[in-house]
Design goal:
342 residues, Beta-Lactamase, Heat Shock Protein 90, 23% strand, disordered N terminus, kinase, phosphoprotein, EC 2.7.13.3, transferase
Length: 342
């Protein structure tokens, strides 16, 4: 047997629920007249419950509720054209303006002759102020970060210039070589910093990144571009900023090493930087077609550049593979796809 609730009983129950509701709410009839107002609504908007009932929401307060948005919202909801959810509107009260979120829904009592509308109102003024403060802080942080990046770039340029001037003044060829190496490393870090500053999405496109990096290295280390050239071959891979820094420093060290040792005297050739990925696996290779690694140099204790490459590769969970290329030398940094990933 199906039991039905008399419309008056359902309405009385709704009135009791609305009045005791913790959420600001109004129950309206087909004429937009307030049948019941929750205590929380009257408290939130400093209204006397006895003055609210029997009036329309547009008549509340000192006229601040009589706004076109609210009138339209009530009309379309009563006519069944829409069910309003999370509609935001501003309420200009006697004090500071308030930001409200309105929800309007028709209630079914089984009595089509007496439709009822439930209107709930949330005051999100404080939340919106907090969001604006957060946005302002983030904007200020971005401006400060941009300023910091400019200062870092300027500082790196100054350091690089001082190192190059020092290299020109010293008499020792060994010291001059060390200073030039330091200059080239500072310039590469400056290039890394510029690329990261230009990346707005937190990801770096490696093809453009390596190209810019190699152009910077070539400009500072290659005296005759017709004799020695730097080329980049890369897919459209993008990586996060942390990984791109490590890859950039690895490329810097391997390219500097190739430029120092692969083309002695007037020998010319090409250095190729290649990067390709498949899934989570990737391979970075720096290959030159120079004289190859002399046995004496290969047997020597690893230098600073080699130690840097090995440390960075370990950080990336990759391995370093060095091989003769006939001609030249090929150094690859290999990151294998994890077992079980297809």
């Amino acid at each position: 047997m199906t039991h039905t609730t008399h419309p008056d009983v359902a309405l009385n129950l709704a009135l009791a629920v609305i009045t005791a509701s913790d959420a600001p709410a109004l129950l309206l009839d087909q004429n937009f007249t307030i049948i019941a107002a929750s205590t929380s609504f009257c408290r939130a908007f400093a209204l006397d419950p006895r003055q609210a009932v029997g009036r329309t929401p547009l008549e509340l307060g000192d006229g601040e509720w009589d706004v076109p948005q609210l009138r339209t919202l009530l009309g379309v909801t009563f006519h069944g054209d829409a069910q309003i959810e999370s509609y935001e509107m501003d309420l200009d009260g006697p004090h500071a303006p308030r930001r409200l979120v309105l929800h309007a829904k028709m209630l079914d009592y089984g009595d089509l002759a007496r439709p009822r509308l439930l209107l709930t109102i949330s005051d999100v003024t404080e939340a919106r102020i907090s969001e604006k403060l957060k946005d302002d802080l983030l904007r200020e942080k971005a401006i400060l970060l941009q300023e910091l990046q400019h200062r870092v770039a300027n500082s790196l340029q100054i350091i690089a210039s001082v190192l190059m001037q020092s290299a020109r003044r010293v008499q020792s060829e060994e010291t001059r070589s060390h200073l030039r190496d330091a200059h080239n490393r500072v310039m590469s870090i400056a290039t890394v910093q510029q690329q990261l500053a230009a990346s707005r999405l937190g990801e770096v496109e490696l093809g453009a990144y390596f190209t810019q990096l190699c152009e910077s290295l070539g400009a500072s280390m290659i005296c005759d571009s017709d004799l020695v050239s730097l080329r980049v071959s890369a897919d459209d891979s993008k990586v996060n900023a942390d990984i791109s820094v490590s890859l950039g420093l690895i490329v810097t060290e391997l390219v500097i090493n190739a430029l120092k040792h692969a083309f002695p005297g007037e020998r010319g050739g090409t250095i190729l930087v290649d990067y390709h990925a498949l899934g989570e696996a990737w391979k970075l290779t720096v290959h030159d077609d120079g004289v190859g690694t002399p046995h004496k140099l290969a047997a020597a204790k690893p230098g600073l550049g080699t130690s840097i490459v090995e440390a960075l590769a370990k950080q990336l969970r990759a391995t370093v593979e060095t091989a003769g290329a006939s001609p030249g030398t090929r150094v690859s940094i290999v990151h294998e796809e994890p077992v079980g990933v297809s």
